């Protein structure tokens, strides 16, 4: 088991810094590199999780890359139950089975994380561990620290206002579970992040807390170099493509925020409509009690309105549980992406500053010193990683929103179909002739 | 045109043997002829209702002829009122057409303008002269049960339009009523523009009207009203209460539904703005946004249609009042009868006492006799004679009152049965049309969201 730096692979920045393989990881991190500096076309067209309609262009093996890790990671996008090319997917992660734990100090929920993998980094083919939200939070922080050049997926919101939201209600827990599942799947699909040792430990360790404590010691060694990257340099100008990404993210987050507000407002109006409907229906019942021949028709109308009310309630519940959280997730995502962009700026700034300093020192002119070269390296790797991740993110975003908005349309269609059925079914009742006198 | 004064006998005419013009199935708001101008933009004006026909006395007062009535236009007018102050009001054009049996073609026979107050006058007249009939109600005087987008202003064109339809409906109800259609004043209302008000007032119907106080008194003191009328009164109270409640909540429901649809319009704009920064997703977003705009604007027509349903309910809300009026009349007559019987009984007793010399009842004469001495036998005879005359008169009156009362009950109940059939039919039709409206709304919703989903799928 090597403890030295990985050799002969296109560097991806921090990989060279983090040369400490984790005790639990099977083999060294040499094979763990899946991310190319230049994204292959297949990366862009690869399937995203959840979408079963796109066809992979060439059955899945990207041309030009022989490393098994990268080809498998590309196809990791496929869902657990989507078995197109089972053999090329080698890591499956699922979050399910929430359970409530009541202890003296606190009450909390844990989720079962099931991992199935044929990767050598995993000792066993299958793992099942329980984790709570703060474990996920820890994982995300670790990933941000150890992979600062990559876009880390967002977690669902940490804090919930007590009293307003019941954090132990079925709906809340289910919404959170889905978001946590999405989080892990996004990491699983990432060619670099999925090989991260913290991720591996998260999925496999029996006692995560012990590892967490140990990790604090590691941090002090790694921290230096990480801190080194984020020195206080001022960037003169962002290169065009990154400026464009920055602008895009700004507008994107803005528009999502507006959509979130609109969706919330719609739900609010629908709930108020529901309140009135629940008073409206029963009045027909009251009237029905006064009448003879009209009693059945009026009662029928009352029941019909009741059914529509139920359908409306289902719609508002669905939108609250499935639509709003995903929107919010993407807003968080774009926020974290903007800070990664800023970090990239820092790296570039540092390089440019060093370069300038060298240019002023006449004696070193023909040869560029090693540390400046290192800086340049760092910057170029960062840029490459970021560009690759951005493209992957754009593609995933497109699929996610396609699915989200189609889902919204679907829910509304189902609502109207339920109401239609209710009203159509009482027409014959209303048209019934009384027995001839 | 003869001006036969409407006399009391006419109200006792039994209903004609053959159904006049059409059955209760036709007793609905009719569109009548399509007229130019204000009619064309009316949405949901009940075109699904059968073309209502009425009947009217022919000019020579023999038989009945088929007619079509329509309130085809409404016009704002200014004039001077009774106190010579300038006022603005709306006048309505009433057109009457006679329908030829052979080819179904109609010929315009009369056309005149009337304002709302004249309709009220007509109805008040009918209430007095046909107290045993459930007299059709007028559309509301002021807009009530409005949801926020509707105006409560009487001059508002939408209100005027709905009132026009309501007035037409009123005239058709009267014209298709087996008894009311024969009324001369009603005939003149449709045919004689000038001087009609004077003619109505000359009947002196206002004097014949029962005072409110008298009616109230009777309601409290009557001892033996017909049970059916008591039940009916109870029913009409409940009906009024439940329909009011229904209309109030429906207005709130309409308000909320409006809000839901309109907020979706915001999606249109934001999708458009978002599509500007997207490459592949742009087109799908943009076109989906357009569908959201369509969705948001579709609610206006939907709710306008629903107003028609509300108007149908309102008619029966006001009908409840007409039902109560008939019950009140019965109570009044019954009370009158009871008082007359009581009075007769007391007089008989007085007479008996005088004849036998016993004084069981208190009377002023008895008192004065005691104070001032016995009266002479001649005086006593005279008094007995007077009383006997009064008793005779009283018995005659009681007999005729009894007869009147029974006739009233019989005829009123016949009309109430007719009304019940009409009500059941009309309200069923109203519920069906409401269900149809809802179905249409659901189908539109499915269409729009399916289109939007299609656009999203192309993102």
From TrEMBL, chain A:
Region (Disordered): 1-44, 54-73
PANTHER family: SORTING NEXIN-30, SORTING NEXIN-4
Annotated protein name in UniProt: Sorting nexin-30
Subcellular localization(s) per the UniProt record: Early endosome membrane
A GO CC term attached to the entry: early endosome membrane
Amino acid composition bias (Low complexity), ranges on this chain: 63-73
Topological relation to the membrane, as annotated: Peripheral membrane protein
UniProt similarity note: Belongs to the sorting nexin family.
Chief localization: membrane
Domain (PX) ranges: 89-210
SMART domains: PX (SM00312)
One GO BP annotation of this record: protein transport
Protein's UniProt keywords contain Transport: yes
Coiled-coil portions: none
Pfam families: BAR (PF03114), PX (PF00787)
Example GO molecular function: phosphatidylinositol binding
Self-association state and partner proteins as the record states: Heterodimer; heterodimerizes with SNX4.
Keywords: Protein transport, Transport
Organism: Lynx pardinus
Gene3D superfamilies: Arfaptin homology (AH) domain/BAR domain, Phox-like domain
Top-level taxon in the UniProt lineage: Eukaryota
TrEMBL record, chain B:
Gene3D superfamilies on file: Arfaptin homology (AH) domain/BAR domain, Phox-like domain
Alphabetic keyword roster: Acetylation, Endosome, Lipid-binding, Membrane, Protein transport, Transport
PX domain ranges (all copies): 70-196
Subunit structure: Heterodimer; heterodimerizes with SNX7 or SNX30. Interacts with WWC1/KIBRA. Identified in a complex with WWC1/KIBRA and dynein components DYNLL1 and DYNC1I2. Interacts with BIN1.
CC annotations in GO: early endosome membrane; plasma membrane; SNARE complex
Function text: Involved in the regulation of endocytosis and in several stages of intracellular trafficking. Plays a role in recycling endocytosed transferrin receptor and prevent its degradation. Involved in autophagosome assembly by regulating trafficking and recycling of phospholipid scramblase ATG9A.
Basic and acidic residues: compositionally biased ranges: 36-48
InterPro entries documented for this protein: AH/BAR_dom_sf, PX_dom, PX_dom_sf, PX_SNX4, SNX4, SNX4_BAR
Molecular functions (GO terms): phosphatidylinositol-3-phosphate binding
Transferase is among the record's keywords: no
Presence of the UniProt keyword Ubl conjugation in the record: no
Annotated GO biological process: positive regulation of autophagosome assembly; protein transport
Predominant localisation class: membrane
Membrane topology listed for this record: Peripheral membrane protein
PROSITE patterns the record matches: PX (PS50195)
Highest taxon, organism lineage: Eukaryota
CDD domains with a match to the protein in the record: BAR_SNX4, PX_SNX4
Name this polypeptide is given: Sorting nexin-4
UniProt cross-references to SMART domains, sorted A to Z: PX
Family: Belongs to the sorting nexin family.
Residue numbers spanned by region Disordered: 1-49
Intracellular or extracellular location(s): Early endosome membrane
